[in-house]
Amino acid sequence: SYVLAQPPSVSVAPGQTARISCGGNNIGSKRVHWYQQKAGQAPVLVVHDNSDRPSGIPERFSGSNSGNTATLTISRVEAGDEADFYCQVWDNSPDHSWVFGGGTKLTVL
Amino acid sequence: EVQLLESGGGLVQPGGSLRLSCAASGFTFSSYAMNWVRQAPGKGLEWVSSISDGGSRKYYADSVKGRFTISRDNSKNTLYLEMNSLRAEDTAVYYCARGDSRLFDYWGQGTLVTVSS
């Protein structure tokens, strides 16, 4: 089955740029989706199909995907961005499955 | 406004059964695939099961295949998860999530299932 690898943690100062990676075999050929989960809350979709933002998500959140790595980029990080972030893809080998990365804890210093 | 409200969680002994429900509102329920995703305490997200808009196609994670059954009642705008032969490792918050067969665009607040003697 398909495996997605994320760093356990990323730290960044307010106002700086955070980059969270998501590694997978030829992930560039898949559509990657990103979720933000704040403490005690349900996940929220923040980027879909590699780089598109749902309505209501700030432009500070962006995504890219190429080769074996997808990246979620958060510009001008704010204290309120502190959360766990998960990447996710759909895989059909050998059967339909929805795969999540292990999650990355974003800490705003 | 899309709303998903899970219910049915609780404490159950190993080997026991539980049925979760998810009441949907704010969108045309019968037009969307629906899903269950769980999160063990302090752990990451794990996809559990998905069902197509009409209910004819169902998919399960290997960890629950043969023990869990997903179903839906489009006349009641409700999604279900029947869980049998529960194990300690099934302990988690179970989220109901709307999908479009690729991703999960809206999530409920979750219901906690604890499997313990």
In terms of topology, how is this protein built?
The complex is a heterodimer of chains A (109) and B (117).
Chain A: E1 9-12, E2 18-23, E3 33-37, E4 44-47, E5 61-66, E6 69-74, E7 83-91, E8 97-100, E9 104-108
Parallel strand pairs in A: 1-9
Antiparallel strand pairs in A: 2-6, 3-4, 3-7, 5-6, 7-8, 7-9
Chain B: E1 3-7, E2 10-12, E3 18-25, E4 33-39, E5 45-51, E6 58-60, E7 68-73, E8 78-83, E9 92-99, E10 104-107, E11 111-115
Parallel strand pairs in B: 2-11
Antiparallel strand pairs in B: 1-3, 3-8, 4-5, 4-9, 5-6, 7-8, 9-10, 9-11
Summarize the structure in words.
- Chain A has about 110 residues and is mostly beta strands.
- Chain A has no helices and nine strands.
- Chain A has strands spanning about 10, 20-25, 35, 45, 60-65, 70-75, 85-90, 95-100, 105-109.
- In chain A, the strands form two sheets. In chain A, strands 1, 3, 4, 7, 8 and 9 form a six-stranded mixed beta sheet that branches. A three-stranded antiparallel beta sheet of chain A has the order 2-6-5, with no helix packed on it.
- In chain A, a hairpin with a 2-residue loop joins strand 5 (about 60-65) and strand 6 (about 70-75).
- Chain B is mainly β.
- Chain B is about 0% helix and about 55% strand.
- Chain B has strands at about 5, 10, 20-25, 35-40, 45-50, 60, 70-75, 80-85, 90-100, 105, 110-115.
- In chain B, strands 2, 4, 5, 6, 9, 10 and 11 form a seven-stranded mixed beta sheet that branches.
- The radius of gyration of chain B is 13 Å and the shape is globular.
- The chains are: A mainly beta (about 110), B mainly beta (about 120).
- At the A-B interface, strand 3, strand 7 and strand 8 of A face strand 5 and strand 10 of B.
